[in-house]
Amino acid sequence: MTKEETQNKFALDEDAASLEEVNGSVEVPKNAGFWRTLFAFSGPGALVAVGYMDPGNWITSIVGGAQYRYLLLSVVIISGIIAMIMQYMAAKLGIVTRMDLAQAIRHRTNKPIGFVLWIMTELAIMATDIAEVIGGAIALNLLFGLPLVVGVMLTVLDVFLLLLLTKLGFRKIETIVITLILSILGIFLYLVILSKPSIAGIAGGILPRPEIFHHDQLLLALGIIGATVMPHNLYLHSSIAQTRAINHEDPAEVRNALRFTTWDSNIQLIGATFINALLLILGAALFFGHGDQLQAFGDLYRALSDNNIAKGIASPVLSTLFAIALLASGQNATITGTLTGQIVMEGFIHLKIPMWARRLITRVIAVVPVIIAAIVWGGTEGAMDNLLVYSQVFLSIALPFTMIPLIWFTGSKKVMGEYANPLWISIIAWISAIGLTILNFQLVINIVQQLIRLF
């Protein structure tokens, strides 16, 4: 046994397996055909994909279309490609090392660095959960007229729903998430077809154009990118990629798992990118010229019933479908955010508490600042939307603290052996990480400048 294999064995002996209750719980067929094997490995990609179509993505994509028509469509596509690369590396880290990203960081950094990364990750998960709580609460308000504070409190019940689903089996969670994704896809595809978008405009927006780099367009492009690649998804994928039962002593099985996990991830992320593209196309086809009036979820909800904006197709039914899609998006991302909270808590600090308590703590930590904001700012839609924007800003700051260790580990032959990233993947990954970091910090600076002007 090599020194590296000994280190990995020590890590596995010291740590419980990542998400121990579901680790290796899904059987995969041996020597089966392509489609049957792909079906067995399909699921983790869907849980990851929901993070790329959460409520934080909605406003930027729809407003991007409403203000600049199809210009920023290429930005949505580029963001999707970067997501595929990052998630491929996260899944590979989990399958090869049998550790999630949090465990890998704990075992390969000193205590001060590990502590800082843990704090940043916990805050990033809190910021992610805040966005999902807000999206769910606003959807309940739009659909049923519930006060936003009440809607926020109801989202705590999601934790117990997830606990029940886990007891039924991890495949049940994957199935529900996929169903919700298909519901969101169906709703927005229907809305886009009704809006009759310009095919020529869509084709022209697929390739990047110089106008993207003009000041106002660039700001919104940064928002789209900043809301796309999220830190928690990388931790999540490195863990749930291990839910399939494979023989890690057989290199052929490991390679097969990597192959089909990558297929699953890419298919689901293509779907997420398509939904984000539909959001932008909907904004361009229905709301172009009204971008300044669409700064919040409530604005979008009401616009779909306003004949002066959604000309020709305005209907309360469309508004209701939009709110249902928003609720489904919030529920989906809630499930994955809660799972990630467990992964990080166990991976970084080995904290072992009952499953229901872990999940309840994760959710309550996120709910508290939302309730405080709702009380202080009057519980208005605008206040909630502002808090959602601030949460996305923090995710922009936290992203490098997750991407850099991931790229470093998966590019290292000491850690990954023969499965280390090829040079061309490493180059693309580092360029993406550096570029995203610069763009995200530019986004933070722009938002801070806007806040300074307001006050």
TrEMBL record:
Record flagged with keyword tRNA-binding: no
Locations listed in the record: Cell membrane; Membrane
Keyword entries, A-Z: Cell membrane, Ion transport, Membrane, Symport, Transmembrane, Transmembrane helix, Transport
Pfam families registered for this protein in UniProt: Nramp (PF01566)
Membrane topology (UniProt): Multi-pass membrane protein
Domain of life: Bacteria
Membrane-spanning residues: 33-53, 68-91, 112-131, 137-164, 176-193, 218-236, 269-289, 309-328, 360-377, 389-411, 423-445
UniProt KW Membrane keyword: yes
InterPro entries: NRAMP_fam (IPR001046)
Family note: Belongs to the NRAMP family.
Its job: H(+)-stimulated, divalent metal cation uptake system.
Official protein name in the record: Divalent metal cation transporter MntH
Organism annotation: Periweissella ghanensis
Lineage: Bacteria, Bacillati, Bacillota, Bacilli, Lactobacillales
